[in-house]
Amino acid sequence: MALKILVTAKRVEDPESKIRVSPDGTSIVTEGVNYRLNPFDEIAVEEALRLKERHGGEIVAASIGDDKSTTEIRTALALGADRGILVKHVGALDPVLVAAILAKLVELERPDLILLGKQSIDDDQNQTGQYLAETLGVGQATFASKLDSLESEAEQNKQPGILLSPDGKRLTVVREVDGGLETLELSLPAVVTTDLRLNKPRFATLPGIMKAKKKPLSELRASDLGLDLCPKVVVKRLSEPKKRKGGIRVANVDELWAKLHGEAKVL
Amino acid sequence: MSNVLIVAEQQGGMLRKATLHALGAGYQLAERLSGKIHVIALGKGIGTVAHELRAYADVVAADAPVLEHYLAEAYAPIVAEAARALDADYVGAASNAFGKDLLPRVAARLKAAMASDVLAFGGDGAGITFHRPMWADNVLAEVELRTPVKVFTIRPTEFSPAPKRPVAGDVIPARVEVDAPALKTRFVAFREVKSARPALTEARVVVAGGRGTRGNFREVEALADELGAAVGASRAAVDAGWVPNDWQVGQTGKVVAPELYIAAGISGAIQHLAGMKGSKVIVAINKDPEAPILQIADYGLVADLFEALSELRAKVKASR
């Protein structure tokens, strides 16, 4: 019943870093910005680890980018993934291209499950998993979550939120949707994208980090995959949104009420 | 000439309001393209929805038992087929759980590139651009989609709902050919968060709580109920399991723009601000005078949130 899982490990700007637009509006200022594994991919890696702990199998962590993305793959390996693949590509990436590259990896690796973050926190597009699922002709469950809360006993015990059927052919996934939680059943192979409440990712341990250095990490070149590498989503211009002007401090609820009721007339 | 197809969202035979905002965006786009607009509704027993939608545009209705429960895998080919039949080069929907899940799959089917969470359009004819947020709304990007067909989702708070047209449109039944046993996804259950309160994204007033509530949302909810408001929450409060996931406001939760947003015990991380800074009036109640949310609030009150909310509720009650 072992599962082979392909999990994504995208390199993104740290959400704690201040993001500013360069004066010419073509890029962001990277000076002083830290990078890390996309937080949603981190949840995907954690779920892959829990599935492997329960069912056995193999976890392959993949990233697309220049050599720097090796860092994020090593992070996934330090957490417990078995091996890594870096698809080398210099230049802009968009979900169309990323999905095409991942589809090639799926062809090569034949995983049972492809686990991705629901979005990467740089371009915030939230498209790649769905795009990939349609490209592969497989089922999808986006925004994977679980019925138990992150404070529950199941979470303390690091139980997977995604359930594998006894015959190992289907997954049950709970999704965060508008107005509640939806449960879907997917035949494998399948694509699942992870949301915030699926799990609390673990931290890498020192032995894990040491071990990761020796785990296999292979490299492919995107240009060798026979794909059209021209970006289809092209950023023409970046700008910073207008900042909302701060207002006033009120001393007490009487004053707040007077402002809301008498002045702004919203109450 | 390019045409526009908007995908409607319905739940249990009720049209979701966000669809009207998507239609509003669709009309803006159709004008820039000098094209026609259609709307497609999918589901089982959607006659009422289709009838309601006629007031806004010509309607393609995909009505079949197999479409009872929404599944991206089953819906995407039908939407893509309708786009082809209507010569629609632009396919859009509202950016919520439904649109985010379905439209990328439609895009893949149409070999189209896609822009998510569009705030505005630029250019016209072949030079249409999409304005959209990146990096948790810290950056606005103007993007171009370089594929013959273009797919998008719009942020409902950024577009006015479409007005009704003087003459009702037609309802065109769509052919539904779904090989149900071949589907690789199956609907199992839906656990609804039942609430008598207005929907978070549609409410005139939102009262939201964060870490500062320490899990006690009683005063937050009591003020909301006194005001007929929706209840929202920060990620911290949702992650702690204090309130349903569905209440989360922010970059990865819901984006709201009510007339009044009252943030109680929410420090104001950039990811939360991304979900509510479009609100007309923002009130922040926080014990910490350094909380970042006080920097952007129209009215900031440094106080104990439980006492302040309770006092405010008394004021509201007394004013009736």
Which structural class fits the helix and strand makeup of chain B?
Answer: alpha/beta
- Output mean pLDDT of chain A: 96
Distance, first to last CA of chain B: 55 Å
Succession of helices and strands of chain A: EEEHEHEHEHEHEEEEHEEEH
Radius of gyration of chain A: 21 Å
CATH H-tier superfamily of chain A: HUPs
The domain tally of chain A reads: 1
CATH superfamily label of the largest domain in chain B = HUPs
Binned strand content of chain B: 25-35%
The tally of helices of chain B reads 9
Structure description:
Chain A has a single domain, classed as 3-Layer(aba) Sandwich (Rossmann fold), CATH 3.40.50.620. Chain A is built from seven helices and 14 strands. Chain A has helices at residues 39-55, 70-79, 95-109, 128-136, 153-156, 206-212, 253-263, and strands at 3-8, 11-13, 35-37, 57-65, 83-88, 113-117, 139-145, 163-164, 170-177, 180-187, 190-194, 217-221, 233-239, 248-250. The N and C termini of chain A lie far apart (59 Å). The N and C termini of chain B lie far apart (55 Å). In chain B, a hairpin with a 2-residue loop joins strand 2 (10-11) and strand 3 (14-15). Chain B is globular, with a radius of gyration of 21 Å. Chain B is an alpha/beta fold and 320 residues long. In chain B, the strands form four sheets. Chain B has a seven-stranded parallel β-sheet with strand order 7-11-6-1-4-5-12, with helices on both faces. A five-stranded parallel β-sheet of chain B has the order 15-14-16-17-18. Chain B has a three-stranded antiparallel β-sheet with strand order 8-9-10. Chain B has nine helices and 18 strands. Chain B folds into two domains: 3-182, HUPs (Rossmann fold); 205-318, TPP-binding domain (Rossmann fold). At the A-B interface, helix 3, helix 4, strand 7, strand 9 and strand 10 of A face helix 3, helix 4, strand 7, strand 9 and strand 10 of B.
